[in-house]
Amino acid sequence: MATPKFDVYQHVTDAIISEIEAGTPPWRKPWTGERGGLAFPLRHNGEEYRGINVLMLWIAAAKNGYASARWMTYKQAQELGGQVRKGEKSATVVKYGTFDREDPETGEEKAIPYAKAYRVFNADQIEGLPGEYYHQPEPARDLGTVADPELDAFFQRSGAEIETTAEPRAYYDLRRDCIHMPPISTFHEAAGYYATLAHELTHNAEVRIMPHRYAAPVVL
């Protein structure tokens, strides 16, 4: 059976839609602090990525907690004296360009657009690179945002277990049946905190209503 052809456009579309549906895509995170990766993505030589690749690499970095802004191919890593760790998964970026093709009817050259996918790794996945390729994530900042007692009481009545730690991520941990939230003081606004908490609560409710969809432990 032939292997299905990789559809670059569909891959990009699916990745962005998935992050929007997740409620807190990395380009719209309402709290401060990072596990890493939300710096503007750079190529191995320090050049900035453009267009859709910025979003694609933000998504990959946010999901995996990468702190470095630098991305490169396997070969580029080797040329810099590094080695991708065994088992690391690459991220997909897209190169857009054009090539000339003769129009069979007019004989004129036409520029034909194309999109080509290729694979890159974050510096955090690679050992042995020069020190400047590794960066520490931005620490969370206490913005003084305060809780709303009535809203806190509302979420407590939901029966969901909600824990707060300094880890700058919001997620529902299926293994422990627990919602994790960063401190509300690190959010830009209280509304952003409660909107994020409400989203994670929907995952909690969905698991209870349709447990058959979540046979394997995952973080949502």
TrEMBL record:
InterPro entries: ArdC_N, MPTase-PolyVal
N-terminal domain: residues covered: 7-121
A molecular function (GO) term: single-stranded DNA binding
All residue ranges annotated as the Polyvalent protein metallopeptidase domain in the record: 150-206
Pfam families for the chain: ArdcN, MPTase-PolyVal
Record's protein name: Antirestriction protein
Lineage per the UniProt record: Bacteria, Pseudomonadati, Pseudomonadota, Alphaproteobacteria, Rhodobacterales
